[in-house]
Amino acid sequence: MKAVITVTGKDTVGIIASVSAVCAKDGANICEITQSVLSEYFAMIMLAELDGLNIPFSDFVDELTALGREKGLDIHTMHEDIFNTMHHI
Amino acid sequence: MLNTQDILETINMIREENLDIRTITMGISLYDCISEDADRLCQRVYDKITTRAEHLVEVGENISKQYGVPIVNKRVSITPASLIGGNLSPDGYLKLAHTLQRAAETVGINFIGGFSALVHKGYTDSARNLISVIPQALAETEMVCSSVNVATTKAGINMDAVAEMGHVIKQCAELTADRECIGAAKLVVFANVPEDNPFMAGAFHGVGEPETVINVGVSGPGVVCSAIKRAGDCNLTEIAEVIKKTAFKITRVGQLVASEAASRLNTPFGIVDLSLAPTPAIGDSVAHILEAIGLEHCGSHGTTATLAMLNDAVKKGGVMASSHVGGLSGAFIPVSEDAGMIDAVAAGHLSIEKLEAMTAVCSVGLDMIAIPGDTPDEVISGIIADEISIGVANTKTTAVRLIPVIGKGVGESVNFGGLLGYAPIIPLNTGSPAKFIHRGGRIPAPIHSLKN
Questions:
Q1: pLDDT tens digits, residue range B284-294?
Q2: Whose CB among B49, B196, B227, B384 lies 3.0–4.6 Å from B326's, allowing a Cys bridge?
Q3: Interchain pair B10, A87: CB under 8 A
Q4: Listed residue (B355, B363, B369) closest to B397, CA to CA
Q5: Where are the domains of chain B?
Q6: What is the pTM of this model?
Q7: 3-state per-residue secondary structure call for B295-306
Q8: Residue B430 class from Cβ within 10 Å (0-12 exposed, 13-18 middle, 19+ buried)?
Q9: Chain A touched by B70 (CB under 8 Å)
Q10: Candidate from A4, A58, A83 with C-beta closest to B65
Q11: Does residue A86 sit at the B interface (CB-CB below 8 Å)?
């Protein structure tokens, strides 16, 4: 299974590093990253493969949400199926 | 492959436009709990509900987290209690209501529906006993919901039941007068009641349903409203397309959640109910959709046509998105639960007569409407008879959920709090239908040819 991690907020140093660090620690393999910065506003979408996840998915979600809170970012971690079912027939 | 636009659209729907799954409702058959002894019946009912629905709330919360979409309610619906009560006395039915409350508390759900009776052609003794204690049962419990089906298109309208329900609704309000008359908000009077409705207060587990089943109700008026606003200045053909596409996306989320919940709970998937269910929150209103399409305010001339189009487009979009569709499926127009409806009633733009007309083209009926506390029972029965006859004549579900606000009149309001919202008291036509109501008997089933 894959998860889509979206990160939005004010641009600072080390956003990708901190999100990637959580992924690496928990065993999530990052497959794809797209990111853009628009006048200090940072937006990133990350696709991560979770087959090797070493903690329950819900804990992984909580860790990333907590990281977002700490850094003043909005981080959502959602199973890719919600996007697939909504936007593909 | 996922594209950025789709991902941002989904997140925006959830974060900004109040997209949520309104309810996961587990239907549980209680036929195997039948016993001639009230205590044994109650024990079996308690055991069955707490066993079958043991993991419902936990699974709902896990799915919510996995997909990042809120699941607002987890509920249970049961076989209509009058069908399993057998020889229960009124006291026995009260005991059963308390048992349902206890079971609901144990499994941690929000509501339990099915303290219900089906009397569209006539009363059984069991149904009569159950209906006699509805006001007390709803006053003494918090989560138990009740419904009574008084008519079907095939059987006609049981006017004895219509007359009685006017009185029962009033009693429900009187017994909970110190709690904003909340008892009446947990009771629905139906015509052509659906057997797989996941929404309260009218949910029950119908006679043709399997042992247990998972039904899901979606929401999303805010998403539809935003899509219409984004569409800008286009014609109604295009608006209908926008609504259909949006309803498709909303329903796909419902289908995903429903099949996931069914698989995790090892329970068959029943239906997705394609309803636009509003809440009192800003940006979650069906009335605001009608206004976004082009009405100055909900209730103005053109409202019925707009609602008919909305309702039809929601179904067309939703049907394609789900493998099984059922329940009430359509736009809900509860007054107290919809910020736009509340404003329209408070400003005098929306009358009960217009609401009645609107129910002819959308799902459900006269829902969560506060009426003056001194309304005679017969007038309440008259409102029920009118609304029910719309359902019977048009072969659709209609329902009545009125709250007579004891001690208050037109110009005042009642606040239920939470999802039930708040409602200004609506003025009624005060002419008395007493003679008509007291005639009793049955209004025969309508003819279905010679249509005009």
A1: 999 999 999 99
A2: B196
A3: yes
A4: B363
A5: 26-191, 216-440
A6: 0.92
A7: CCCCCCCCHHHH
A8: exposed
A9: no
A10: A58
A11: yes
What is the per-residue pLDDT across B305-330, written as a single tens digit (0 to 9) for each?
999 999 999 999 999 999 899 988 88
Q: Are A19 and A64 in contact (CB under 8 A)?
A: yes
User: What pLDDT does B1 receive?
Assistant: 61
* Mutual angle of helices B303-321 and B352-359, in 10-degree steps: 40
Architecture per CATH, B26-191: Alpha-Beta Barrel (3.20)
B124-150 pLDDT per residue, tens: 999 999 999 999 999 999 999 999 999
Domain with residue A77: its CATH number is 3.30.70.260
Point out the residue among A34, A81, A84 whose CB comes nearest to the CB of B4: A34
Residue B281 phi/psi, 5-degree rounding, is -65, 150
Give the N- to C-terminal CA distance of chain B in Å, as an integer. Answer: 52
The Cα–Cα gap between B274 and B364 comes to: 12
Chain B contact present for A82, CB below 8 A? yes
Inter-chain contact B67–A61, Cβ cutoff 8 Å?
Answer: no
Closest Cα to residue B24, out of B70, B79, B80? B70
What pairing do the DSSP bridges indicate for beta strands B71-78 and B398-405?
unpaired
Q: How many domains does chain A have?
A: 1
Q: Chain B residue closest to A80 (CA)?
A: B67
Helix, strand, coil % in chain A, rounded to nearest 5: 40, 40, 20
- Residue range(s) defining the domain that contains residue A38: 2-87
Burial A9-43 (b: 16+ CB within 10 A, else e): beeeeebeebbbebbeebebeeeeeeeeeeeeebb
Q: Looking at the domain B216-440, which fold is it?
A: Anaerobic Ribonucleotide-triphosphate Reductase Large Chain (3.20.70)
DSSP B240-276: HHHHHHHHHHHHHHHHHHHHHHHHHTT--EEEEE--B
Which range among A30-39, A42-51, B78-87, B263-272 shows the weakest confidence by mean pLDDT?
A30-39
Identity (one letter) of the amino acid at A33?
A: I
